[in-house]
Structure formats: C-alpha cells, structure tokens
Amino acid sequence: MARRKNSPKDAKDPIVAIAESVAHKAEDSKDHGSSIFQLIICVGGIYASFLTWALLQERITTTPYGADKKIFRSPLVLNTVQSLFASLTGYAYFSYSSSPGQPSRIFPNVSISLRLLFVALTQSLASPFGYASLQHIDYITYILAKSCKLLPVMFLHITVFRRRYPLYKYAVVFLVTAGVAIFTLYPAHPKKIKKGASPSGEKNVIYGMLLLGVNLLFDGLTNTIQDDIFSRTPRGIVSGPQMMTALNTISSVLTIGYLLLNPWSTELNDALAFVKEHPKVGMDIVGFAVCGGLGQVFIFHTLSKFGSLVLVTVTVTRKMLSMIFSVVAFGHSLSSMQWLGVGLVFGGIGAEAEMKRQGEAAKKLTKLNGQTKKE
Fold first, then answer.
1. Per the domain annotation, does 196 fall within a domain?
2. Sequence-separated (6 or more) residues with CB below 8 Å from residue 18
3. Residue 374: which region, alpha, beta or left (left: phi > 0; alpha: psi -120 to 50)?
4. What pTM value is reported for the model?
5. Is residue 223 part of a domain?
6. Per-residue pLDDT tens for 187-246?
7. Residue 351's CB: how many other CB atoms inside 10 A?
8. Are 323 and 154 in contact, with CB atoms under 8 Å apart?
9. Which domain holds residue 150?
C-alpha cells in the first residue's frame, strides 16, 4: 500500500474532519481572527445550534411522548430528515459562498464521488448503533464516549496502516479510556439486583457500551477513509460547502433507498404512525434537523475564517456544555467518581488540543523563519 503524505493527527466529529480537510488555506488567511464581532457570531451560532440540537436529540431518543409513554425508535428516519435539511442548507451556503473560479458542481468527478460514497455509507451505518445504545445507557455516557473518537481512529491506523504516534497521544488515550471506565463503573444510583435474579441491568449496560463501541469504530473508519481521500485529492478541487452538500445528499439517498426498498423494514411506517399519534415529536425532529444543518454551516464558516484551533476549542467546550445542560434539563445525577471520569476525559481532550496548538505554533514559526532567511 502506498504511503500517504499526511498522517492523521486528531480525531474529530465527521463534519469537523471534513471541513478541516478541505479548508486548506484557512490557517494562512490574512484576516484570520481579525473580526471579533464575526467570531462572536460564529461561536454563538455553533453553541446555540448544537446545544439545542443535543437537547432535542436526547428528548427524541430517550424520553416518552404522550399518555402511553412511548419512545421514538426510528433512528434512520431521524438521520434522513437531518441529512435532507443539511443538504438544503449546505447547497444554499455553497451557492452563497461560491465565487468565480471555484467549483460550480456539487460532485466534481466520478472518482471523488465514489470515494465520498464510502464516507457516506460508514456515516449512515454508524448512527443506528449509536441511537440503539441509548436504549441501554444514559445520554451523559453517550456524550462522554462520543467525545473519545481519537480511540477508534488510532486503533484503525495502528492496526491497518501500521502507523506510530507520539507518546502523548497514548497518554491521552489512557486518560480518556480511564475516564469513560470510571464513569460507567461508578453510577450515581447503582441498581440493586435481587438474589436469584439475573443481572439484566448490568447486561444491558454492557450491551449498550458494545453498541456504542461499534458506533465509534464506524466513526473511526469514516475519519480514516476521509483522511485517505483528502490526502490524495489535489488542493482546490473540492470546497467545504461543496463537501457538506455532497456528503449529506449521498447519505440522504442511501437512507431513503433503504427505508423505501427494504421489504423487511417497517421503520418508515412506524415513524409516520408515531408522528401522527404524537405530533410533538414531529416538531422536535424538524427542530433537530434545522439545528444540525445550521450548526454545520457555522462550523464550516468558523473554520474558513478563524482556523482549526479556534474550532477545536469551540467544539470541545460545546460538548462540555451539552453534558451540563443535559444534567440540568433532564435531571441526571452524577456521583463524585463520575465527575472525576468526566474530568479525566475532557482533561485528556484539552491536553490533546493544547499539544496541537503548540505544534501548529511551532510550524508557523519555522515557516516564518524560513521566509525570513530567504529574504
């Protein structure tokens, strides 16, 4: 296998990873960080969109609706509605931000489109496992584990591509893994199991963590494929808004095709019947999709104007706030050991971001020194 020029540095949310991969010139922009007002708008937009998105996600997938106390169990339908909205907002953003000389088509060529199909497929496969895990674990555990995407990405690159990482990366993985383990093993209200009864609660938690592990592996595979695609794609071929629109369009086609053509699946009919019986969930789903689409636009715009370091800081703090909002809004209670686990996870993620910041600063200094010597 040919060795690629770019090595994977950080695990990110799929949209963040895509955005950073295609925004090649963001870090060198002359107006980088110059507009404080624009930065406030971008950060505020990300916080408002994704904090609301997270609250709606938890409400839709974990809380009962109506007098019959039913829970919405149609993750592919939820995914499809969100990807459709993201396709529309992405196309609007693409049309608005395009200038003469930039790509005018959503799908540049057949080769790139086929590779994007693999990315969309792994993203579409990951989501149902994540939502299924919420039937067995609480949303706080879900958020915490989803913040640890560095683990599956490193695992895949070490086992498949035989890559090596600096020592601090392994330290971060240890902190994050220890944090998630402590959080899972020391709940605030452990369930008491009667003598002679099977430990179903424990089995459910283990099964939920297994489903979440599969979800994270698919996420890691998504980022791995993205890294391979963008390391081979010449600069300027694909823009950020173009990539956002293309991926969400392909994901929509895949999930709609599955829902309509799979004779063994009744998920679409079940979802329509649920929404008809409980109209409130329909409004929540629309709000969830709108927030997700707008949030992606703010992510791409923030990256293009202010660079990846600002974006990493915003996304990490946003996940911390999502966890706090979930505790407050849905009445979760955490034990002192669980707070320790949270601290370890976000401490590791924060250390990862700081090491990246120092590395980027060193690169810029080296580049500046090289330019000075040439002059």
1. no
2. 119, 226, 240, 243, 244, 247
3. alpha
4. 0.74
5. yes
6. 776 654 434 333 444 447 888 889 988 898 888 777 777 666 666 766 667 667 777 888
7. 15
8. no
9. 50-62+75-188+202-363
